[in-house]
Amino acid sequence: MTVVWTAIVIIVLLVLLIVGTGLRAVQQYQRGVVLRFGRLLSPVRQPGLRVIVPFVDRMEKVPVQTLVLDVPAQGAITRDNVSIGVDAVVYFRVADPVKAVINVSDYLHATSQVAQTSLRSVIGRVDLDTLLTDRDQVNGELRGVIETPTDEWGISIDRVETKEVSLPEGMQRSMSRQAEAERDRRARVINADGELQASQKLAEAADAMEAAPGSLQLRLLQTVVDVAAEKNSTLVMPFPVELLRFFEHATGQTTEAGTASPQRRDDRDQIDRSGPT
């Protein structure tokens, strides 16, 4: 009797063990691909507790959430013959779990290799200036190149970004000198434009003062007020050239009048001495 009960317990344990090996838990971020004797069974197992035939079926769990692939720095030569190093990051996910299991042995490694070779290929077709200034164009072209082979593997490329561009030291110094020369050129142009505008305004002001001479005196008084506001002990008042010319002209007229008066007096004295004729 003891032997019978022992056999029953063993049989029950074996059944539970076999049933337990046939249960698979598929997580929410996974999909299950079942192969029976190496042949694909459809449909794809959805998240939850799934039952397979023990020792007959084999389930591959494929994650379907977005994965991040870091592409190591790749040495490449741009179209204008500049040697640089560029690294990137690829965001992708498994869109078709069946293709990811059947069409490629290791989709992670395969996607990584495709990303590296595509990065070198794309960098070789663009100029250095395009790579530094128009990242969106380079990223879009890189994504299109990576999507071509990975589409057959059931991989969907969500986004591709180039992270860092490593330039040689000589190229960095050349670009620094170029940027400095460009800034100096802009400063010279702005300074020349400012001088041109200032000269135009000064010419307009000179024309206005020439039309109204009294405005020059008002400007002189305004300058005196501005200088006196600084509370200086010495006040220097500039005299305009027109004022000096006025004094010079007035002095010249006075001298002529003074020289003419003695001559008239001498004539009168001579007439008085001669007497009546």
UniProtKB/TrEMBL annotation:
What transmembrane ranges does the database entry give? 6-26
Q: What's in the keyword line of the UniProt record?
A: Membrane, Transmembrane, Transmembrane helix
Task: Locate the compositionally biased regions of type Basic and acidic residues.
Answer: 263-277
List the Gene3D superfamilies.
6.10.250.2090, Band 7 domain
Which residues does the UniProt record annotate as the domain Band?
Answer: 21-179
Q: What's one Pfam family here?
A: Band_7
Which InterPro entries does this one have?
A: Band-7_stomatin-like, Band_7, Band_7/SPFH_dom_sf, Stomatin_HflK_fam
Biased composition of type Polar residues is found at 253-262
Could you tell me which residues belong to the region Disordered? 253-277
Q: Which domain of life is it from?
A: Bacteria
The entry's family comment says: Belongs to the band 7/mec-2 family.
Protein name in UniProt: Slipin family protein
Tell me the classification of the organism that encodes this protein: Bacteria, Bacillati, Actinomycetota, Actinomycetes, Pseudonocardiales
